[in-house]
Amino acid sequence: MIPAVVYAIPAFVLLVVVEALSYRFAPDDDEEGYELRDTATSMTMGAGSQVVGLPWKAVAVLGYAGLYTLAPVQLSPASVWTWVLLFFADDLAYYAFHRAHHRVRVLWAGHVVHHSSVRFNLSTALRQSWTPMTTLPFWLPLALLGIPPWMILLQQSISLVYQFFLHTERVGKLWKPVEWVFNTPSHHRVHHGSNHVYLDRNYGGILILWDRLCGTFQAEDEPVRYGLTKNIDTYNPFRVAFHEYAAAWRDVRSTRSWRHRAGYLFGPPGWTPKADAAVPARAEA
Fold first, then answer.
1. Which residues have CB under 8 Å from 78's CB, separation 6+?
2. Which terminal residue of the chain, N or C, has fewer Cβ atoms less than 10 Å from its own Cβ?
3. Domains of the chain: which residue ranges?
4. What is the DSSP letter of 26?
């Protein structure tokens, strides 16, 4: 099954070109804009993620289908309430997935790819992981709720399409009720910030309500510095894709303590044996 988001790729590329041209004809000194090598790396990461992701979707479908057959009740796609449940359940699953991938280093090692650019534009949305295998567990409960697998995949694609438009500096803050309920470019700029006050904030997908309820919300109050707190300074796609796995492996090999090894893998990014209290995510990359 080809994810619906694949069909949106030509539109994504066209909109990247349009936004890049907007910087050429209407530059803004307060915005980072585009840089050719950075954009090329983001595009390459996006293409690679699709190559890896397509066969992995087949595995995901099998997992969803297996649990769907075990669900006590199988919900009808003809019911509007099934779609309402799917919308909120998918968005909550995304919040859990996203938060976990910032707070567990072995998960962060894949997700760090998306935060590795020091620029923030529509091409940044395409800078995706080449190791999507860690996403599956967070959506399996939706199949157990009785939601058909094809609906889960469709809503995942809808969420990703929505989030593409969050990656821009060309849109300021929106109407206050919209900013209060939905994830917006302003909220997502915060999420991509390496400013200390912005670290590990605004994990939402379509809604920002989960962040407000769980205490991870932060408004955009100061200029955003994009990227990692320790940037990797490379445009090499393979290093972008795997540098944090290599760093974690070096840390694991540096100690003979199994407790410390577990901390390096399953503690938050920046965990060290000398401090149980974690350094915020993106501290080491």
1. none
2. N
3. 4-266
4. S
